[in-house]
Design goal:
Largest sheet: none
Strand content: under 5%
Order of helices and strands: HHH
Structural class: mainly alpha
Number of strands: 0
Radius of gyration: 15 Å
Number of helices: 3
Shape: elongated
Helix content: 40-55%
């Protein structure tokens, strides 16, 4: 398991900065409104570039380990 610090759920999608802020600004149903309220601004989180670099390096390491067996 890998924990990517200062990352949100949308850090695993393209254009994370845009997607994250769109969700924060979204008008969600009352039962889900807490999601947008609890989200930190993207400026306080790791960049999409850093998240993708981390994901790529961990994925590559996993595949290399698995395929070398």
């Amino acid at each position: 398991m890998v924990v990517l610090r200062r990352a949100g759920h949308s850090h695993f999608v393209d254009n994370v900065e845009q997607a994250h802020e769109q969700l924060r600004a979204a008008s969600l149903p009352p039962q889900a409104a807490w999601i947008a309220r609890e989200m930190r601004p993207i400026a306080e989180l790791c960049s999409g570039e850093e998240a993708h670099r981390q994901i790529q390096s961990h994925t590559l390491a996993h595949l290399e380990s698995t395929l070398e067996e």
